[in-house]
Amino acid sequence: MQRVCVPRALLEQGTTKSVAHKATANLVCFLLQEGAIRLYKSMLIRHVHNMSLFLLVSAGMAAFPNALYAGDDAVDAGDRWVQIFGGRYTKETTGDSLNPFDVESENNYVAGIAYGRDWRRMGPYFATGAEMGIAARIADRRSGELWGGLYMRSKGLPLLPHILIKPSVTVGLSLVDRAIGMERVREERRRGNATLLYYFGPELAFSLRRYPEWELVYRLHHRSGGMRTLGNMSEGHNANTFAVRRRF
């Protein structure tokens, strides 16, 4: 399909077609096109950069499991876990929110508890399981959230001689009683319903090799409609959260 520049098209429909007017229309079209291209490239680069911060650690390290695996079953401290967590919601999209140190945040918070259990081990390096959690969403009006999902996690990769890193990702469904913050804005803008959305939770957990049952966890707590397949929503809400997890 051929692209149509609005200023040039409007000029061609008019009666005045002077050289000056044509030059002005061409210049406006060029600036509009260049500006759109640069804006798109800038947004794309920012999303790729922020996603890379997470994916390079998780997927990149997993590319050499024989060299990176922590080495013994004692590192895997248990197939059940419970955690308490808290965090702050952002105004940004998923990609931008993955960088917790450079993101515009809301004055809205989330705090809760979650429980999970491994179902199946995938060789010596990975495991799959299920989790569920409940959270209070603290904003100008209170809200509650209940979610559940399936996850895949690493059982422990050595980051430093005495520190293990455990990438994981959870996908599932999230139910809330009311929308808050940017989620409410997006709901009204889309004329959607944010009550039931998809849940997505990429995370990085850290533990000491001597105490692998205790983990400090960073997770992006994300809800979305999956390209408007749920609730007529696209982006929902993102929160950068930090947790303390105990395995047993």
Structure description:
By secondary structure, the chain is α+β, with helices and mostly antiparallel strands. It folds into 2 domains: 6-51; 67-247, Porin (Beta Barrel). 28% of the residues lie in helices and 45% in strands. The chain has 5 helices and 9 strands. The chain has helices at 6-13, 19-62, 65-68, 94-97, 181-190, and strands spanning 80-90, 105-122, 126-138, 143-154, 157-160, 163-176, 196-208, 211-224, 235-247. An 8-stranded antiparallel β-barrel has the order 1-2-3-4-6-7-8-9. Strand 7 (196-208) and strand 8 (211-224) form a beta hairpin. The model is unreliable at 6-17, 35-45 and 59-74 (pLDDT under 50).
Write the layout of secondary structure elements.
Elements: H1 6-13, H2 19-62, H3 65-68, E1 80-90, H4 94-97, E2 105-122, E3 126-138, E4 143-154, E5 157-160, E6 163-176, H5 181-190, E7 196-208, E8 211-224, E9 235-247
Antiparallel strand pairs: 1-2, 1-9, 2-3, 3-4, 4-6, 5-6, 6-7, 7-8, 8-9
Helix pairs in contact: 1-2
Please summarize what this structure is:
This protein has helices at residues 6-13, 19-62, 65-68, 94-97, 181-190; strands at 80-90, 105-122, 126-138, 143-154, 157-160, 163-176, 196-208, 211-224, 235-247. It is α+β, with helices and mostly antiparallel strands. It starts with 5 loop residues before the first helix and ends with a strand.
Order of helices and strands: HHHEHEEEEEHEEE
Instruction: Please report which band the strand proportion falls in: under 5%, 5-15%, 15-25%, 25-35%, 35-45% or over 45%.
Output: over 45%
| CA(first)-CA(last) distance | 60 Å
Helical fraction: 25-40%
CATH architecture of the largest domain: Beta Barrel
Question: What integer is the average pLDDT?
Answer: 81
Question: What structural category do the secondary elements indicate?
Answer: alpha+beta
* Contiguous helical run count: 5
| Largest beta-sheet characterization | 8 strands, antiparallel, barrel
Radius of gyration: 23 Å
- Low-pLDDT sequence parts: 6-17, 35-45, 59-74
Number of strands: 9
Any idea of the CATH topology of the largest domain?
Answer: Porin
Tell me, briefly, the overall form.
elongated
CATH uppermost class of the largest domain: Mainly Beta
Tally of individual domains:
2
Q: Which strands sit side by side, in order, in the main sheet?
A: 1-2-3-4-6-7-8-9
